[in-house]
Specification:
Oligomer: single chain
Distance between the termini: 21 Å
Strand order of the largest sheet: 1-2-3-4-5-7-6
Mean pLDDT: 93
CATH topology: Aminopeptidase
Radius of gyration: 15 Å
Strand content: 25-35%
Shape: globular
Helix content: 25-40%
CATH superfamily: Gcn5-related N-acetyltransferase (GNAT)
CATH architecture: 3-Layer(aba) Sandwich
Length: 173
């Protein structure tokens, strides 16, 4: 397993992990019509745009298996709302279902956190759907529950919870 900075050549792999992870994580939660409409090409467009913005104050890391296939990724940077006392945010972290439960996600979060520290950040926020079965993953870092709000996905409304930490707690925990 290798964790490294993403490059433009990784966009297809990132898009595949993004779509496939949504379909497995949110099956039975988000309506199947919405999940069925997720497309690799639309996610490639999204991640190409992210890559083109550069990573001076943000980070996009990928994790590869032993064959070089991208099996997960994490993206983070400046906290987007400016409403909280946290200066950085995990925007996305996805890992293919077959690789979950092997501590790869924790290593990915630690690598992302280290990169954000190098960029000058001190604290971290992440938004998680309350019904997300991986919510316990974030809770394992012993965060504070910061806020909650309703979000709309595919015509349905869901509670989303914000968790926050001092970055040192993530790195030492």
């Amino acid at each position: 397993m290798i964790i490294r900075q993403a490059t433009i050549n990784d966009v297809t792999g990132i898009a595949k992990v993004h779509v496939d992870s949504w379909k497995t994580t949110y099956a039975g939660i988000v309506c199947s019509e919405y999940l069925d409409k997720l497309s690799y090409s639309k996610r490639e467009t999204l991640w190409t745009a992210v890559m083109n913005q550069g990573f001076e104050k943000s980070s996009l890391l990928v994790v590869e298996d032993s064959s070089g296939q991208i099996i997960g990724f994490a993206n983070g940077g400046k906290e987007r709302s400016n409403q909280y006392e946290y200066d950085a945010e995990i925007y996305a972290i996805y890992l293919l279902k077959e690789y979950q439960g092997q501590k790869i996600g924790s290593k990915l979060v630690h690598a992302l956190t280290e990169d954000l520290v190098e960029k000058g950040y001190n604290s971290l926020l992440v938004w998680v759907l309350a019904e997300n079965p991986s919510r316990t993953f974030y809770e394992s870092f012993q965060p504070e529950e910061v806020d909650s709000m309703q979000v709309e996905i595919g015509g349905q409304f869901f509670e989303e919870i914000a968790y926050g930490w001092k970055i040192s707690k993530v790195l030492l925990g």
